[in-house]
Amino acid sequence: MSSKLENPSRLVTEAEYAIIGAGFAGLPTAYFLTKAGKRCVILEQESKIGQHASGRNAAFFRHFGEDVRMLTMAIESGRLLEEMGAKPLLRTTGSLLFGSPQRMDRFVKIAGNALECERLSRGDIVKRFSFLERGNFHEAIFVPADGVLNIKALLQLFVDGACGKGAKLMTDCQVVGVEEGMHGVSLKTKRGKINCRIVINATGAWSSSLAKALGGPVIPFTPLKRQLHKLRRPAWLQHSHPFFWHFEDHIYFRADGNYVLVGVCEEIPTTPGDEVLTKDYLERLKSRLQECCPQLATCKQVSSWACQRSFSPDRLPVVGWDPKRSWLFWVSGLGGQGVSLSAVLGKLASDRLLAGKDKLDDGDDFLSPARFT
Length: 373
Ligand SMILES: Cc1cc2nc3c(=O)[nH]c(=O)nc-3n(C[C@H](O)[C@H](O)[C@H](O)COP(=O)(O)OP(=O)(O)OC[C@H]3O[C@@H](n4cnc5c(N)ncnc54)[C@H](O)[C@@H]3O)c2cc1C
What we know:
D-Amino Acid Oxidase, Chain A, domain 2, 8-stranded mixed beta sheet
């Protein structure tokens, strides 16, 4: 994925805020900071944006996440995306989430009055989607507000918004270390030094290794590998259909152009940047499909890829000031909902950065880095 605003030829040497990582953590943070009139530089080690999790995900805009508080945040994220003019980038197909009665009870309870959802029996579901007749499930909930985002366009919207207000995006610019000074820091990059006041760690799966390179305490994020596949799309699976997610069978799928995008919901611990498919990726795919939607098991597999989701120890994002280093701020651990929460977390990061470390008491906050120290 490339951006017309990349300027790899000239290195910016001064900035107020240096945001490291051009994904769904870093770009929205830059978007909202520049909107507030701040001078930012975004530093990306790759030659293009969206080379890792942010450009290689399933593109669901989903409300249910790791924690009840994520639901409120996803609702707010949807509102912010609409405010930014990103509504045309969201295809509101709804989602059909399958699971045990206990899980369904929990979802309905979490949704409360905040999010519309409809509980459906097996009979109701098969009546609407006859191709699920041989699937292994008892019931599901339908969430009408869920949908599918145009990932490339959304990343570009954040880049254009930030760069249009003066941010500079430097690609091929890996950050490798730091020197602390009286009034800020000097970041060492593969392309030279950049002096800045505040450094924002938005490096996804690399968040712990970057923190180590910057010195001082490290929050232990775990990168977990997941594999996605494209199959030839059968005519019965349509773009107007919701996305289908089997929580007990650990698989999801949706129509994607001429293809079906299928995710086998693995969580394979690995090292940052390991995007190699497992040896048994096709067997994993076939066996999961046999369980939940046997009709798809016979569709031709066209392509597959692996990427990483990165989790903090409690699996919730980390958005806030580093407790020890006054110049460091974290936007990391976006886990499996980073696309959906991109706008709300970017806005929150920007608000917390603008409030300043001294004026902000986020010690009890559930997203604060302080919870790990
Ligand atoms: C298979 C898969 C499916 C997913 N599906 C969904 C979904 O359907 N819906 C949803 O909401 N979320 C989904 N997610 C999660 C979502 O994609 C992530 O939460 C989100 O993209 C993380 O964004 P990020 O900016 O933190 O990380 P990244 O996108 O990895 O960005 C971090 C960037 O930092 C750069 N970087 C690292 N170290 C350095 C350095 N030292 N110097 C400079 N640059 C550096 C990297 O090159 C990278 O571009 C999925 C993730 C995966 C892997």
